[in-house]
Structure formats: structure tokens, C-alpha cells
């Protein structure tokens, strides 16, 4: 699991604890003789805690959601598809864009901000992991062109011409 994702999960646990108890999460005692939990156990436990938090109106209104779905626009231009995704405050290195079996998958992390005391905080712009998957109606000829500027991620997908589609089909049958 990505170390930054673990840190964001830890921040969310601290926020939930603070909302539920009114105090800071006690520091973990490093002298534990138990084994380290697996990535699957951490993910499952975190998902259960997050779901439990959402069942309590008193907690859910004081704890921002862990992940979010950024808004997007899809524009079809001649032989291309342009997907624009609003991801304010996200660095290009924190975004992954890939085409998988006719679906454009955009995922990444928007890091939270910390105040001068080191505490994480959040306003209305969500932070944490994000994920979008968009079916692409055309056969794409190559990897998408990706550009991020001023919080707007632009992904341009060029479609294959009929000749390129036939060539690709004959190569995959060989």
C-alpha cells in the first residue's frame, strides 16, 4: 500500500477519534509483540470504521469523507475524446491515468493540509484518494495525452481510423 495513503488513512482515524471523543488519539505503544496486520486487514478495518462513522449523524457531519469522486466533463472532438477532471491542489505525480479494456481509469490522491501545529484539516474541497472510470466509445490509437494545469486534468484520447482498427484486429489474430 502506498505510504502516503497509509498516512491519509491515519489522519482520518485521528479525525474520527477526535470527533467521537473530543480528544486526540493516544500514541501507539511500540512495544507490541503482536504481528503487523496485513494490508488486507488494514484496508478492511479502515473501511469498517469509515462505514460505522457514516451511520452516526453526529460523527458524519464532523468527519469529511475519506475518498471522493471528482467531477468531470467529456467532450467529443472529431477523432478524439477530451476528458477534463477537476482535481484542485493535486500534483501530476499523484495522478494515474490508464486505459483498460475500453475504460479510461483516473485515480490518485489529493493531500490534506496541516495547520502550524501539524494537525490535518479539511474544508469543503475534499482530500484523500479519488477514482473515476469512464467507458470510452471509440477504439483508441495510442496512450492518452495527459496535462494538468491549475487543478484541471485534461486527458485527450485519439481514436483509431478504420484502417488502424483493421490493422490492429489482424495483428491480434496473428
CATH topology of the largest domain: Immunoglobulin-like
Average pLDDT number: 82
CATH class of the largest domain: Mainly Beta
The share of residues in extended strands comes to: 25-35%
Structural class: alpha+beta
Whole-number count of domains: 2
Structure at a glance:
The protein is of the alpha+beta class and 174 residues long.
Describe what this molecule looks like in 3D.
The chain is an alpha+beta fold. The protein folds into two domains: 3-60, no CATH class; 72-173, Immunoglobulin-like. The protein is built from four helices and nine strands. The strands form three sheets. A four-stranded antiparallel sheet has the order 1-2-9-8, with no helix packed on it. The longest helix has 19 residues, at 3-21.
